[in-house]
Amino acid sequence: MYEKVSIPEIFGMNVFNDHMMREHLPKPVYQELKKTIERGEMLNSSIADIIANAMKDWAIERGATHYTHWFQPMTGITAEKHDAFLAPPTNGRAIMEFSGKELIKGESDASSFPSGGLRATFEARGYTAWDCTSPAFLREDAGGVTLYIPTAFCSYTGESLDKKTPLLRSMEAVSKQAMRILRLFGNTTAKKITVYAGAEQEYFLIDRELYKQRKDLIFAGRTLFGAAPPKGQELDDHYFGNIKERVACFMHELNVELWKLGVSAKTQHNEVAPAQHELAPIFSDCNTATDHNQLIMEAMKRIASHHGMACLLHEKPFAGVNGSGKHNNWSLGTDDGQNLLDPGKTPHENAQFLVFLTAIIKGVDKYADILRLAAASPGNDHRLGSSEAPPAVISIFLGDQLVDIFDQIEHGEATSSIQGGKMRVGVNTLPYLKRDATDRNRTSPFAFTGNKFEFRMPPSSGSISGPNFVLNTIVADVLEEFADHLEKAEDFNQAVHDLIRDTYIAHKRIIFDGNGYSKEWRMEAERRGLPNITNTVDAIPALVTDKAIQLFEKHHVLNRLELHSRAEINYEAYIKQINIEAKTMIDIASKQIRPAVIKYAGSVAQSMAAMKAVGGDTSVEEELLRQINENMKLFHEGLKYLEEVEGQAQLLQGSSRSQAVFCRDYVLAAMEKLREPADKLEMLVDEEVWPFPTYAELLYNI
């Protein structure tokens, strides 16, 4: 039954936001906390007890019994340990307490989370530290109400073990360097630069009962077997199509929960593939947006079960239909209300905008390999480079207007900007439409879209922390270089013009506005010297090059030890994911597909014998059995080979990289070799006998 809601009444009701802080905190304490949040000043620990008590009272008023330090370890998901607001009882009566110490710092077993060798098994201590720039919130579910406190996570020796810490460090780095550029352009009012982000989240919804019958979906998140259905996405009838009522009910409940959490869920629609959908929020600061995206993914999975569905966030859950990505929209803004990536009506005259734009162009070109790594995952390897997602080659789309301006600058001075004008549709009752100055390019991995960049490569299941802290750091690095140069300039205006021109000429190889899917572009990209990193294993080394270590250490985002640990964690995650998929394939093939095919072949043989006994024609049965036997032989050979190479992968000694390379080159190839005859057998065996739901059932039973 549809629940009528008022967005203004419920929005942020479960968040200890600015309104709640004003209401529950003494004015001096509120002002001190705001200084920390807005200006990045050090938190005054003397007020922590007051804040903690106010937060506790607010949470208990709303029914909370527990609190948790909510953090984002290198597992790719979030982690939490719940503690009750309970102090030692007095005279048999419960006392509810929450101290400033408990708010600011928590403790967890650091050796139980991925550390890439930073922590040994016996070295257990790790700390969670309150991130007051991301508001605390209440989560309501069947288990009750819990106060969630966003935190960073570090080891006993101080290294970052999470995804939040480098993001916060990178935001400070880009703010510091961007402020230097602003001051040179005469801005004396801004005190801080904010990184803004908005992540468009794609996902699949399938029937939960069917999901529970697929071991591959349960263990691997994607289908490891499955023949193409009679109908896929070829009719283009799902994108922006009518939202089915069952899905709409899910979306409504999801929106309500997210609005209560202060997540500005705005856009929802059907995506290209059957059973695929998208949710997009309004922009917010990068740190909050990252936390919100984690909440969105968690809520999607939980709420889907309320409606008898399962939510799939894997990048390629079904072969042959579009996979899911997460478009990361990124921009920079000042605390005095200026969007630094807004070109204005005459961008050729907007030197400040062109300086920031040129810095981004240089940063993306210079550090393309690191940016590519930020979008790498085993699941994304199945998606990137096909005709549904950006190619693995990093390039930038600027559009006709900006390319024309840079062309003018390269050959002299920019004197004009291409304008969009108006467009007449050709029907008198329809209004004139304002035409943008440039078209969009869906094949570009990094596209300028009016007043922001859209990084289209990130994986749907991943955190947006990685792409954003890399973007922040590479832009901070170039802005620092620009500021160092311009601060010494005798003629500032001429220096700006020359800097824009020279930087564009040196890095224009990264600009490409054409079809990123074409073979011609891959050849052209190679001619230009642009890297084409097609898989995660080849992307990981970018983290530990001298260039990367110098970049991240220089801006205090990650040190050498932290970078090497993250490379190791990425290798381990890749190896483990492929191992899980291979073992799941072996399990399904041995225990489900093989017995089902043998049983069906036996029934066909019995039918053929009965037909022969009465003198009937058995040519159809004979042909069917021949095809089954041929594919069953290939299936058996493929299964034995997969078992062999999977065992070899487990026995490999030496570096994690060599094991990851083996998994990529041999285990994945063996999995494909096994899948091919299995999918052919699916088309030969009676669907009543086939041991698990088919693509047709999964994609069209909602």
Automatic annotation (TrEMBL):
Entry superkingdom: Bacteria
Protein name in the entry: Glutamine synthetase III
Domain GS beta-grasp stretches: 65-158
Sequence ranges assigned to domain GS catalytic in this UniProt record: 163-593
Provenance organism: Anaerotignum lactatifermentans
Family: Belongs to the glutamine synthetase family.
